[in-house]
């Protein structure tokens, strides 16, 4: 750093929150794009408002321990983001929607 402060030993962990409802293919593709990011210090919490387990199955196929699905009966993206904040513990929280595909440098 140019301000005289030492660099941290590791970058802070980022908690990524992805709200979804009834779109397992979108959720899995979104999460796969996040998993491809260059930064390795992140977790992904998918807030699943679906009425079935198809999103759970799609995410399980990714087979990555950094991905966690939280099923909720709540409705609405804003509500899902609030649930996501409560479910994460990283010092930085990033949000994206299930229909987004992020660049490898997004984080």
Low-confidence stretches: none
Element order, helices and strands?
EHEHEHE
Which structural class best describes the helix and strand composition?
Answer: alpha/beta
**Oligomeric assembly:** single chain
Number of helices: 3
Rg value: 15 Å
Count of strand segments: 4
| Residue-averaged pLDDT | 92
Question: Ends: how far apart?
Answer: 19 Å
Strand portion: 15-25%
Q: What is the share of helical residues?
A: 25-40%
* Largest sheet features: 4 strands, parallel
Shape: globular
What spatial order of strands do you see in the largest sheet?
A: 3-2-1-4
Describe the protein's architecture and organization:
There is one protein chain. By secondary structure, this protein is an alpha/beta fold. Helix content is about 30%, strand content about 20%. The protein contains 3 helices and 4 strands. The chain has helices at about 25-35, 55-60, 75-85, and strands spanning about 15-20, 40-50, 65-70, 90-95. A 4-stranded parallel sheet has the order 3-2-1-4. Strand 1, helix 1 (about 25-35) and strand 2 (about 40-50) form a beta-alpha-beta unit. The longest helix is centred in the N-terminal third of the chain and has 12 residues, at about 25-35. The mean pLDDT is about 90.
List the helices and strands and how they pair.
Blueprint: E1 14-20, H1 24-35, E2 42-48, H2 54-60, E3 67-71, H3 77-87, E4 92-95
Parallel strand pairs: 1-2, 1-4, 2-3
Helix pairs in contact: 1-2
Short note summarizing the structure:
By secondary structure, the chain is of the alpha/beta class. The chain has helices spanning 24-35, 54-60, 77-87; strands spanning 14-20, 42-48, 67-71, 92-95. The chain has a four-stranded parallel β-sheet with strand order 3-2-1-4.
């Amino acid at each position: 750093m140019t301000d005289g402060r030492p660099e941290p030993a590791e970058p802070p962990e980022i908690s990524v929150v992805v709200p979804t409802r009834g779109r397992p293919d979108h959720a899995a593709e979104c999460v796969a794009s996040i998993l491809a990011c260059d930064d390795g210090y992140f977790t992904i919490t998918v807030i699943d408002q679906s009425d079935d387990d198809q999103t759970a199955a799609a995410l399980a196929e990714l087979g990555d321990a950094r991905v966690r699905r939280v099923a909720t009966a709540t409705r609405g993206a804003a509500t899902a983001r609030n649930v996501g904040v409560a479910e994460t513990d990283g010092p930085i929280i990033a949000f994206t929607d299930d229909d987004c595909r992020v660049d490898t440098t997004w984080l």
